[in-house]
Amino acid sequence: MFTGGKYDEKEIERFSVDDGSHFSITGEILPSLGATRSFHRNSVGRFVISPFDPHYRTWEAFLVLLVYYTAWVSPFEFGFLVRPSGLLTITDNIVNAIFFVDIVLTFFVAYLDKTSYLIIDSKKEIATRYVTTWFLLDLISTIPSEFVRVILPNNLQSYGYVSMLRLWRLRRVSRFFARLEKDKNYSYFWTRCAKLVSVTLFVIHMAACIFYRLAAHYFNPTETWIGSVWEDFKTESLYSQYIKSLYWSITTMATVGYGDLHAVNHYLFYSLVDRVYLFRGVSNDLLFQLVSEMKAEYFPPKEDVILQNEAPTDMYFLVSGVVVVGEARTGDVVGEIGVLCYRPQLFTVRTKRLSQLLRLNRTAFLNLIQANVGDGTIIMNNVLQHLKENNDPIMQEILLETEHMLAQGRMDLPLTLCFAATRGDDLLLHHILKRGSDPNEADNGARTAMHIAASSGNDHCVALLLEYGGDPNKKDSEGNVPLWDAMLGKHESVIKLLVENGATLSSGDTGQFAFTAVEQNDLDLLNKIVSYGGDVTRQTSSGTTALHAAISEGNIDIVKFLLDQGADIDLPDSNGWTARALADHQGHDEIKTLFQNRKEVIKRPIPTISQASKLGGGSSSSTVIGKKRIAKYGSEPMIAPYDPSTDYSPRGVMPSVPERTWTDDSSRRRRVNTFRNSLFGIMSAANTGKSTIETN
To answer: 525 near 488, Cβ under 8 Å?
Structure first.
């Protein structure tokens, strides 16, 4: 137990300065008016510890060393540990016990009253002062982490949160250095250097622990600062994790500006930009690049974002708030017409309330488009479609002017044949063809302008493409040919034009064509497929046949037609099911009887193209399928592979039929090909004269 005793007045003066501010020249506490040094008592009461007792000062210095331990271990446990560790837990509890002893001692340590300049040794006053100041925080910082984990619910049982409360003890270090700075026995310069080094090491260590915790608890750790380099960083040793985090923290703190910090998350504004009409249908690559180029800015209410007739340098995407331009809301874009058409801004844009906007510079945008030329065509088409749907007279005037310039070829834009065919603009298509474009140029789905024009029924565009050497039998990535697209849309004039120029169905996926006709229960369409050179008995890319689909649909007329065309009832599909076994399994008695009575198969001859052209003018009852291409799948859910030893009659045991889930969005965003005849370039070519930018 520390004992009270006498103390000299020099200690009182130094202690008084310690309690004052070391930044103020008036920090020393003066005695009250009329008081003299002779009024000081030279001893404290019994069982009261003098704050100047050398043993107590040694105890305080020992506690400072323990504070250094706390300053290291508390952030470390917070950042790197999930649960208590054996030796570390024991050490923590020992340190907590020592600080708890100090809490008890503090109730018996006299203090210097700053108003009377007297040492107060009354136990009641000492206890009152301590309880009303730092007692509660000191007590909380000594609570064991294990005890807190027991009383808290599961979602709050984090090992590191409680240990961070112990950083309250750092005030002892600050007070310790303040006393040393005023002690003539120690060099002021080296004391300040030691304090600077201590603070620097603590900040670096603290940052390393926080950086690692953020990375380790992120929902996708592979997209964090450490996971992007070491994907399996969580499996490495604790020592390796700490050294890497410490290195990252040091290099970041020692680098100008943001240091090594850089964005690795593309999804902050990705969902917002993905909904903007301007980028509907572009590739993911371009969206990621655009998001990284956008700068988030905040505008107060009634702030002008864009002024009418100012230079079109930026476009803005509204994240939150409301902007008056008409009225724009979250996900809308403003200023894009001026940027893309390179004309003075049409309207003044002003905020109604505090708004966050993403600013995209025109130069950065055009540089990205030059690297993604195919996406430039999509963006321009989206702009024209937006202008067409807008009823504003100014927008309609811009649309007419832009379309006129496009038709005359006066704008050096990244326009392709597919772009012209999609818009049904035969004048623009003719202009692009005259410039030497390949009439068989394809988009990302291997669809040519011939496919697009045929599916929309534009016979003028089809005729132009045929005139310039377009291939009427070109197959896209789904096996479709232009003739089939025209048949699906029931465009008889286009069908006749294609057939007269040598178009057939034989180069396409005729098995899939027949399968589609069976799904629609359209016997007339099946007849046309045969008339135009299609083999309705072929298997589809998934291994099934039209006969399997007809049996699943229970259409006896189509089954008879397919048998007349030579369909093999014993040809297995990809799961081993033959048409005969499938009919037995599904209990179609009429179809089973038809199979049993069929002795031999006589395949009807396929009419020639000239004969087929005569049939082309007939009407069809097939359902019109829109321009959007969809994958074709069987209407019958996937069934188990065929087993010849199993009785599949209605009286037998029916095999389980698992559900099949089809998704057609996996290929929605494929990187658009760079067309050799197009480049987005600079939109101001119409105003600045002709400028040619060539790319390899």
So the answer is: no
Q: Which residue in the block uniquely carries the two structure tokens 């894009």? A: 336
Distance of CA 150 to the CA centre of its chain: 38
* Residue ranges for the chain with pLDDT beneath 50: 1, 4-6, 17, 20-29, 33-42, 259, 600-604, 606-639, 648-696
Q: What is the pLDDT of residue 265?
A: 55
Running DSSP on this structure, what letter comes out for residue 318? E
- Reading the block at residue 74, the tokens are 């508390």
Dist. CA 414–CA 374, nearest whole Å:
8
Task: Tally the C-alpha atoms within 13 A of residue 481's C-alpha that lie toward its C-beta.
Answer: 25
With CA atoms as reference, report the closest residue to 361 among 266, 282, 274, 297.
297
| DSSP type of residue 654 | P
pLDDT of residue 202: 94
HEC-encoded secondary structure of 473-526: CCCCCCCCCHHHHHHHHCCHHHHHHHHHCCCCCCCCCHHHHHHHHHHCCCHHHH
- Strand 304-306 to strand 349-351: parallel, antiparallel, or no bridges (unpaired)? antiparallel
Length of the chain: 696
Q: Which residues contact 638 (CB under 8 A, 6 or more apart)?
A: 575, 657, 658, 660
Distance CA 520, CA 553 (A): 10
- What domains does the chain contain, in order, with CATH numbers? 9-186 (no CATH), 425-664 (1.25.40.20)
Question: 84: how many CB neighbours lie within 10 A of its CB?
Answer: 17
In 3-state terms, what secondary structure has residue 562? helix
